[in-house]
Amino acid sequence: MTAGTPELGVFVTPEAATYPDVVRQVQAAERGGLELVGIQDHPYQRRFLDTFTLIADLLARTERVRVFPDVANLPLRPPPVLAKTAASLDVMSGGRFELGLGAGGFWDAIAAMGGPRRTPGESVEALEEAIAILRASWSGERSVRFAGRHYAVDGWHPGPPPAHPIGIWIGAYGPRMLRLTGRLGDGWLPSLPYAPPERIPEMQRRIDDAAASAGRDPGAIRRILNVGGEITGGPATELLQGPPDHWIEALTGFVLELGFDGLAFWPTGGGDDLGQIERFAAEVAPGVREAVARGG
Hints:
The chain is an alpha/beta fold. The chain has one domain: Alpha-Beta Barrel (TIM Barrel), CATH 3.20.20. The protein has nine helices and twelve strands. The protein has helices at 19-31, 51-61, 79-93, 107-112, 120-137, 175-184, 200-213, 244-256, 273-294, and strands at 7-12, 36-39, 66-69, 72-73, 99-102, 144-147, 152-156, 168-170, 187-188, 222-231, 241-242, 262-267. The strands form two sheets. Strands 1, 2, 3, 4, 5, 8, 9, 10, 11 and 12 form a ten-stranded parallel beta sheet that branches. The protein has a two-stranded antiparallel sheet with strand order 6-7. Helix 1 runs parallel beside helix 9 and helix 3 packs across helix 5. The relative contact order is 0.14. Its EC number is 1.1.98.2. Keywords: Oxidoreductase. Residues 14-226 form the Luciferase-like domain.
């Protein structure tokens, strides 16, 4: 396959205790020429800052990177409020917010915060309803009405409109979620190892088939993979643990062979996350871009 220049970025953990470090990590990503910053969203995690509050702060401190929840916890964020928040962030940042969105998980923790406890089927239904409300709220319609099993709005006046068409990038793994991504999503946002390389071609086909069946262009759906690992100075020991040349080869394969348009680096070595991000931006990202441009 041929591929355009991939978008590269970082996947950041919103640890409250290391908030200044989180800010430095994102600033290093922008300074290093990366394009994307994803932030985990687990509102029930007591060690984490609120993701959307943090995103507002990070957008105010940066000028170029696009920032998104990776992925937003829908059961704890009602769609009308989520739509308002997303549009507001997009307006304030000049069009640099995207919406990573998930159906939910960790149901005991969600229920403990007063959220719903849904079956897998119900969570997919609720996500489809939420996407309809989000789309309507950003469409410029003066009044939005929607009556679903999980969500309903009746004569709601949305606004402000976002500064650009906000992408809805869906964190999906199971067949129903992958089909929903193909039918309704602007992007697919999985993470290793939940989407292992050997399963990705099958998962991509499910998205493509669902998109084609819905009359959509499968190529218009962005594919962005969160990749966790450690850049080391020694020999490669795992798929994503090794020196920069090993990372360049592996990530180039994710683009050219597995069809991803973007990659977000998640430092998982448990040490110097800032140093890892600086190395990724300086020693890995340029090599990936060059290798993709050459075709491998």
